[in-house]
Amino acid sequence: MKNHLILACILTATIIPPAHAVTKCVALNTLNTTCTSTESASSYSYSTDWANTCTSNGITTSIKGVAACSSDISGVGGTSSTLSISSNQDENVYCWCKMTSPAVSNWAFRASYTKGVPCPEGCATSCATGLREGSSTVTNFRRALFGNLSD
User: Side by side, which strands form the sheet with 107-112?
Assistant: First the structure.
């Protein structure tokens, strides 16, 4: 009986494969995507959260993300896995955006706020509207957000 139990355990371990990875399909194309925000741009003032609804290849996906003002600078489309925040608030003038749903992106550089609107006021708005506009800058921003996603 003991041998049958050991044999059953061995067979079970070899027949049932372990679950090491899960693939999540998210339809987001950097070039063929149109996005609309469900909120007005002013509703994101002084917020860290932003959202959009994007349609790519006929599939509509709700996108949510966070915004942060950092002392790290890049060009639009630049990415980073971490951000630096200066203790001198006047140095945190660079807006970065991160998608948090349906998948998690790296931080994507969006804009510089050196004059006029302060970064905390306009950053989340810039993240939300950045996906809606149609230009090469937006394509770089989308590529930064939609590339190398994790869950």
Answer: 33-36, 49-56, 59-70, 94-101, 107-112, 79-80
Tokens representing 56 are: 């790519």
Distance, CA of 98 to CA of 82 (rounded, Å): 11
Nearest partner of 34 among 121, 110, 138, judged by Cα = 138
Question: Whose CA is closest to 71, among 55, 54, 58, 88?
Answer: 88
Contact indicator for 74, 43 with CB cutoff of 8 Å: no
Helices (H), the chain: 2-15, 119-130, 136-146
List Cα–Cα distances, 25 to 4, 61, 85, 149, 151, in angstroms. Answer: 42, 11, 33, 10, 11
From first to last of the 151 residues of the chain, give the pLDDT tens digit: 554 444 444 444 445 444 444 445 666 766 778 888 766 666 788 899 999 898 888 889 999 999 999 999 998 889 999 999 999 988 999 999 999 999 999 999 999 998 777 999 999 998 988 887 666 667 788 888 888 777 6
Hey, what are 150's tokens? 């994790």
Is the separation of the CB atoms in 61 and 53 below 8 Å? Answer: yes
